């Protein structure tokens, strides 16, 4: 017989509510919440194992039971729909949530370093999209400054669509310190770039540096960067958003390595 949570005073609900709402709680416990079948399956595919699998009381068995069968050792709990909605980061909840430990993804052996450096990306959805592009491009590391949104927040996880499970990440990093010791060129994406990103040699080890959605990159990291590079934009728009710009640069590296 499954437990059914119907009260906000339930200790499991209180614990999960903290994970849903507090980046500090997630950081201190190295735990988070996954919303939806896709994220839970991506976590399982990356050898993660949920500690708790929750399903809304009204969730159909054919949705949560196959997940429960893969979640060895996880406690499966049913929760009243109204309480489930309080935990879910979306307006139309999927019906399943999982409490999981952070996964420390491993860099493939002998991989040529391709690093995405992010300074003060504050929107969790944008951050997730950036990590998703990096993972899709085969990046070997993402380095996030202390001013970035929480990469393990439910909204960032939804934006990443599983990227956090496969992309090695260095969180709350000092970008200047990292760049000084990296031993590789790090190119800053900027509107006032000295050259086009398509003129770079990205076949070897390289870093791509992307700044805050509004303020861009700080003077400190720009001074350390190997140079500023722009993305040619013949159309009548002022700029690309951070996630789109990073994707262009990362996949230019993919294109060059495929030649």
Features:
alpha/beta; 60s Ribosomal Protein L30, Chain: A; 2 domains; 7-stranded parallel beta sheet; 5-stranded mixed beta sheet; single chain; elongated; Alpha/beta knot
Characterise this structure.
With 259 residues, this protein is an alpha/beta fold. The chain folds into 2 domains: 3-101, 2-Layer Sandwich (60s Ribosomal Protein L30, Chain: A); 114-258, Alpha/beta knot (3-Layer(aba) Sandwich), CATH 3.40.1280.10. 38% of the residues lie in helices and 21% in strands. It contains 11 helices and 12 strands. It has helices spanning 11-21, 23-29, 37-45, 61-70, 81-87, 124-136, 154-160, 163-166, 175-182, 219-224, 242-258, and strands at 3-5, 31-35, 52-56, 75-79, 96-101, 114-118, 141-145, 169-173, 186-189, 195-196, 206-210, 227-230. A 7-stranded parallel beta sheet has the order 8-7-6-11-9-12-10. Strands 1-4-3-5-2 form a 5-stranded mixed beta sheet, with helices on both faces. Strand 3, helix 4 (61-70) and strand 4 (75-79) form a beta-alpha-beta unit. Helix 3 (37-45) runs parallel beside helix 4, helix 6 (124-136) packs parallel to helix 7 and helix 6 packs parallel to helix 11. The chain is elongated. It starts with a strand and ends with a helix.
């Amino acid at each position: 017989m499954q437990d059914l949570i119907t009260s906000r005073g339930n200790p499991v609900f209180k614990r999960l509510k903290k994970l849903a709402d507090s980046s500090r709680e997630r950081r201190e416990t190295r735990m988070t919440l996954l919303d939806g079948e896709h994220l839970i399956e991506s976590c399982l595919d990356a050898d993660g194992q949920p500690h708790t699998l929750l399903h809304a009381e009204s969730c159909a068995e054919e949705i949560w039971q196959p997940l429960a069968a893969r979640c060895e050792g996880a406690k499966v709990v049913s929760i009243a729909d109204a309480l489930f909605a309080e935990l879910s980061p979306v307006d139309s909840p999927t019906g399943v949530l999982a409490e999981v430990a952070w996964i420390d993804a491993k860099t493939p052996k002998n991989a040529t370093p391709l690093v995405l450096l992010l300074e003060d990306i504050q929107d969790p959805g944008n951050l997730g999209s950036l990590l998703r592009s990096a993972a899709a491009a085969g990046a070997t590391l993402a380095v996030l400054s202390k001013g970035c949104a929480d990469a393990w927040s439910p909204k960032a996880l939804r934006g990443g669509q599983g990227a956090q499970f496969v992309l090695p990440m260095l969180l709350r990093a000092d970008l200047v310190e990292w760049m000084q010791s990296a031993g590789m060129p790090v190119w800053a994406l900027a509107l006032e770039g000295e050259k086009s990103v398509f003129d770079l040699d990205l076949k070897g080890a390289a870093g791509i540096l992307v700044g805050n959605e509004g303020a861009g990159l700080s003077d400190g990291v720009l001074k350390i960067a190997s140079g500023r590079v722009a993305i040619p934009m013949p159309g009548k728009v002022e700029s690309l958003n951070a996630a789109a710009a990073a994707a262009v640069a990362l996949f230019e590296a993919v294109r060059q390595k495929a030649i």
